Amino acid sequence: MYTLQYFHVRGRAQPIRILLEDQDLNWEEKVVSPETWHQGDLKKTCVFGQLPALIKSDFIIFQSNTILRYLAREHDLYGKDKQEAALIDMVNDGVEDLRSKYVKLIYQTYDEEKEQYIKNLPNDLQHFECHLSKNNAGKGFIVGDKISFADYSFLDVLLNHLVLAPSCLQDFPLLKAYVERLSARPKIKSFLECDAHKSRPINWNHKQ
């Protein structure tokens, strides 16, 4: 049994939730309230003063990408060999670059820079469209022949951007089909349609 500890927000825990659901793993979520967090006692136990945390028995780890990579190694979501693993890491780093830009917009510059951010977004998306096209003509996953942890992270980032800019994938047919294909996986589809998911805001400040 895995326990995911995070706030009532999609945020950094969302790719982890999607992975856990899609892989049909036994897990639960322990929701941390703002009041509990601001008291400070829990924060002091977090290695870098941040959540999410993943707990399994007496083993606990922090940092969202560390959690994703741990689960990937445990459940064969890290490619078929070391070369694929390196490509998966590369893609996930690219996803994190895009996520960082998105987070900066949401929490720091939303009102002033949203329009320009959306205007510049195709420059970032083009890199992913090109990379996807080189793997099975863009008809499968982001790396290799089976899903990896990078797919879950990338799907989450793309879904967030589709809320921010609903037409952002109109010029990227492979990415559009990729989102539709992954979102249609039965367990991901059920998760995205469930009340627990819908009740969580994407971001703390409710900007999206």
UniProtKB/TrEMBL annotation:
Top-level taxon: Eukaryota
Catalytic activity of the protein: RX + glutathione = an S-substituted glutathione + a halide anion + H(+)
Entry keyword Cytoplasm: yes
Domain GST C-terminal: 81-202
Keywords on record: Cytoplasm, Mitochondrion, Nucleus, Transferase
Subcellular location field: Cytoplasm; Mitochondrion; Nucleus
GO function terms (MF aspect): glutathione transferase activity
Pfam families associated with the record: GST_C_3, GST_N
Gene Ontology cellular component annotations, sorted alphabetically: cytosol; mitochondrion; nucleus
Record EC number: 2.5.1.18
Ranges of residues in domain GST N-terminal: 1-79
InterPro entries tied to this protein: Glutathione-S-Trfase_C-like (IPR010987), Glutathione-S-Trfase_C_sf (IPR036282), Glutathione_S-Trfase (IPR040079), Glutathione_S-Trfase_N (IPR004045), GST_C (IPR004046), GST_pi (IPR003082), GST_superfamily (IPR050213), Thioredoxin-like_sf (IPR036249)
Keyword DNA damage: no
GO BP term, pick one: glutathione metabolic process
EC top class, as a word: transferase
Family affiliation: Belongs to the GST superfamily. Pi family.
Complexes and interactors: Homodimer.
Function as written in the Swiss-Prot or TrEMBL entry: Conjugation of reduced glutathione to a wide number of exogenous and endogenous hydrophobic electrophiles.
Protein name: Glutathione S-transferase
Organism (species): Geotrypetes seraphini (Gaboon caecilian)
